[in-house]
């Protein structure tokens, strides 16, 4: 294998595995900048993956090539629906954020596998017919060396994810909405006295995390797993959350961290094809993303600089 | 509105949560045109309708008691241990390994040895997030979850690549352990219709009592609870919050490890490759949250969830309802427990003024000062 084709294999598989993490991690950044800790990202991804696969299987004949893209919309809507449960529990009903998020993580796999069994009478769906394939940028892919590595047979969604990250950074740090959202995450009392609607802003943060987490799950299902079962989403939501923390609650930082974790995840898949790495026992590559997550959190984070009021309930005085 | 006292309210809220959880399950079943009454009937029939059913329910409760106690100890110290699956798995693998390595040792040596090694393995896995949190401030939620996956993949690797070949009966499972290391007791199994109930149950009951004594009557338990309530005040009072956090996580891991030990030496008698995190981890957390962290609450909640789990299997065959419905019910119950504030609104508390002033200081803080309307 030439080094160009090796690099292009690494880059494209890193992109494919990072994309769901990038979307979900950005979603987490919105939720937590508004002050709501969202451990439920894992469950949101499960629902996004499940709903997009069901949609894809049902409507592949009708919509053809557009099906996976519409599947993203379906995943986003279902993601929002399940995130509303978390929003209601934490914002209105004063639930502990981690317990409420864990409930989402308990509920989502149970509900989705129940529905799969109720609909298909088996525990695992068929493989979808229309999935996100590889994409080559016209023109750019012809550039020598850089073209084959970055722009030929690559993941279009990864580039979209990077744009979404930059756009999200702009929304959070350069717009009035972003300032308001961060202020209710830092000091809800102060924000409230200035006339901001704390509850509505926190709801919007959680809803955006549902939207992006649902999309993340839908992308994973339609570009990597190809079907849905209880074993489709195994920790990607938690890794996204770690990526968000590693990225210091900043969408662009989260994107960088997600690319790193995506690279670690892809190694266990493509490792066998890479000279040198194929000698390493598979188990090391399997546990690498998880161990790296821990190491990174310990080494680079220390006492986290999370939004001050993250994880606390706000009770508006009468 | 009902007027109730604080202790009555503490009992009523979980009971209402359970009722609402079952209601959610019934609604989901109705939507998919299953009959909830038939399903719940076959569930209770499966779990409690025969001696073997009861035996299996008690057997299922055994590891849940351990993991729930483990969760509660850490939770009291303000530590959210979601890594019980991994800690239990470590205990399971380690205890089976010892049992297979020394098959001919007499029972009174081998059995305690296997149990202790399993418990220590769980304690070791639990200590990692404790140490990282105490010294580096790393979020234990992420670390414990990541360790679940690390232990999961490592356990398969240990089974397939590290254990001596003679330990394995196939690539995916070990040999059965000898009776010297088994927690099973013939008379107990016979009494419960040949189910897999085992002496682990007695260990679990002892653990509940020790847990109660430790949390309520010892200095360590007091320190754990005070660090959980206010680490800064505890430091000021001369306690080491670092030491307490680590200790609570080690104890939590040991208890979770024992949950895995009773699965290995009691229920399955071997170890086989796991495809996903052990369910006793998250179920134990659910048990602890429903039981409110009290010894009696944990016992009752573990029995309820075991009825759900064992009955759920009967429900699948008896009423054709997918097993996952019981996990939906459990998630719903914990959801209602989590929003206990709303359920609590249903009741008026007696002596409401005194209780409110003491119990809800945050409302005082949120009072706007200077009378500005918000």
Please characterize this protein's 3D structure.
The complex is a heterodimer of chains A (318) and B (374). Chain A has 318 residues and is mainly alpha-helical. Chain A has a single domain, classed as ABC transporter involved in vitamin B12 uptake, BtuC, CATH 1.10.3470. Chain A has twelve helices and no strands. Chain A has helices at 3-33, 41-63, 67-92, 97-120, 146-151, 156-174, 176-186, 188-193, 198-225, 236-246, 251-270, 282-300. In chain A, helix 1 runs antiparallel to helix 9 (198-225) and helix 10 packs parallel to helix 12. Chain A is globular and about 70 Å long. The longest helix of chain B has 30 residues, at 107-136. Chain B is built from 17 helices and four strands. Chain B is mostly helical and 374 residues long. In chain B, 52% of the residues are buried. In chain B, the strands form two sheets. In chain B, strands 1-4 form a two-stranded parallel ribbon. A two-stranded antiparallel sheet of chain B has the order 2-3. Residues 352-374 of chain B have low confidence and may be disordered. The radius of gyration of chain B is 22 Å and the shape is globular. Chain B has one domain (2-371): ABC transporter involved in vitamin B12 uptake, BtuC, CATH 1.10.3470. In chain B, a hairpin with a 2-residue loop joins strand 2 (168-170) and strand 3. In chain B, helix 13 (295-318) packs antiparallel against helix 14 (324-338). At the A-B interface, helix 3, helix 4, helix 8, helix 10 and helix 12 of A face helix 6, helix 12, helix 14 and helix 17 of B.
Order of helices and strands of chain A: HHHHHHHHHHHH
Between the first and last Cα atoms of chain A, what is the distance in angstroms? 69 Å
Count of DSSP strands of chain B: 4
What's the number of domains of chain B? 1
- The number of domains of chain A is 1
Global morphology of chain A: globular
Q: How big is the Rg of chain A?
A: 20 Å
What is the approximate shape of chain B? globular
Strand content of chain A: under 5%
């Amino acid at each position: 294998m030439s080094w160009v084709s090796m690099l292009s294999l690494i880059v494209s598989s890193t992109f494919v595995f990072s994309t769901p993490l990038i979307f979900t991690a950005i979603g987490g950044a919105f939720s937590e900048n508004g002050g709501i800790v969202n451990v439920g990202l894992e469950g949101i991804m499960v629902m996004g993956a499940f709903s997009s696969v069901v949609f894809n299987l049902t409507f592949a004949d009708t919509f053809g090539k557009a099906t996976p893209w519409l599947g993203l919309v379906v995943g986003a809507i279902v993601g929002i629906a399940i995130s509303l449960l978390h929003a209601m529990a934490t914002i209105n009903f004063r639930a502990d954020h981690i317990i409420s998020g864990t409930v989402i993580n308990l509920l989502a796999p149970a509900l989705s596998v129940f529905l799969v069994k109720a609909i298909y009478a088996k525990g695992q769906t068929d493989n979808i017919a229309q999935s996100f394939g590889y994409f080559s940028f016209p023109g750019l892919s012809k550039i020598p060396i850089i073209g084959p590595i970055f722009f030929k047979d690559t993941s279009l969604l990864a580039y979209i994810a990077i744009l979404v990250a930059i756009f999200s950074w702009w929304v959070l740090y350069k717009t009035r909405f972003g300032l308001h959202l961060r202020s209710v995450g830092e000091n809800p009392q102060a924000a409230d006295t200035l006339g901001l609607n704390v509850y509505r802003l926190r709801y919007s943060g959680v809803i955006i995390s549902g939207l992006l987490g649902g999309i993340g799950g839908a992308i994973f299902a339609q570009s990597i797993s190809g079907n849905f079962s209880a074993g489709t989403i195994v920790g990607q939501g938690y890794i996204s959350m770690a990526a968000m923390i590693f990225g210091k609650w900043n969408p662009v930082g989260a994107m960088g961290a997600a690319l790193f974790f995506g690279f670690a995840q892809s190694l266990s898949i493509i490792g066998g094809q890479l000279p040198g790495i194929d000698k390493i026992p598979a188990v090391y590559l399997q546990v690498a993303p998880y161990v790296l997550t821990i190491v990174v959190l310990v080494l680079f984070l220390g006492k986290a600089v999370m939004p001050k009021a993250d994880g606390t309930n706000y009770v508006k005085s009468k | 509105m009902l007027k109730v006292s604080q202790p009555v309210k503490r009992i009523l809220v979980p009971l209402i949560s359970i009722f609402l959880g079952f209601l959610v399950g019934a609604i989901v079943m109705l939507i998919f045109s299953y009959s909830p009454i038939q399903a719940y009937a076959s569930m209770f029939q499966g779990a409690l309708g025969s001696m073997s059913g009861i035996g299996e329910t008690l057997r299922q409760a055994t590891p849940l008691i351990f993991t729930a106690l483990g969760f509660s100890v850490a939770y009291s110290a303000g530590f959210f241990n979601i890594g019980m699956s991994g800690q239990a798995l470590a205990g399971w693998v380690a205890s089976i390994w010892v049992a297979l390595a020394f098959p001919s040792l007499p029972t009174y040596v081998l059995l305690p040895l296997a149990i202790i090694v399993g418990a220590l393995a769980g304690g070791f896995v639990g200590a990692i997030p404790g140490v990282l949190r105490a010294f580096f401030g790393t979020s234990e939620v992420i670390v414990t979850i990541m360790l679940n996956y690390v232990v999961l993949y490592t356990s398969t690797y240990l089974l397939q690549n590290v254990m001596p070949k003679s330990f394995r009966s196939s690539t995916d499972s070990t040999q059965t352990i000898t009776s010297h290391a088994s927690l099973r007791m013939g008379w107990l199994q016979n009494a419960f219709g040949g189910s897999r109930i085992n002496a682990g149950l007695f260990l679990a009951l002892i653990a509940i009592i020790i847990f109660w004594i430790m949390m309520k009557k010892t200095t360590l338990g007091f320190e754990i609870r005070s660090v959980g309530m206010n680490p800064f005040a505890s430091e000021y009072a001369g306690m080491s919050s670092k030491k307490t956090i680590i200790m609570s996580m080690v104890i939590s891991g040991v208890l979770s490890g024992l949950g895995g030990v009773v699965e290995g030496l009691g229920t399955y008698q071997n170890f086989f490759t796991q495809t996903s995190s052990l369910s006793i981890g998250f179920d134990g957390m659910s048990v602890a949250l429903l039981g409110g962290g009290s010894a009696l609450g944990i016992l009752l909640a573990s029995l309820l969830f075991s009825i759900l789990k064992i009955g759920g299997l009967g429900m699948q065959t008896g009423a054709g309802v997918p097993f996952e419905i019981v996990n939906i019910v459990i998630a719903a119950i914990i959801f209602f427990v989590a929003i206990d504030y709303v359920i609590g609104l249903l009741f008026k508390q007696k002596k409401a003024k005194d209780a409110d002033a003491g119990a809800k200081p945050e409302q005082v803080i949120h009072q706007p000062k200077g009378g500005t309307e918000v």
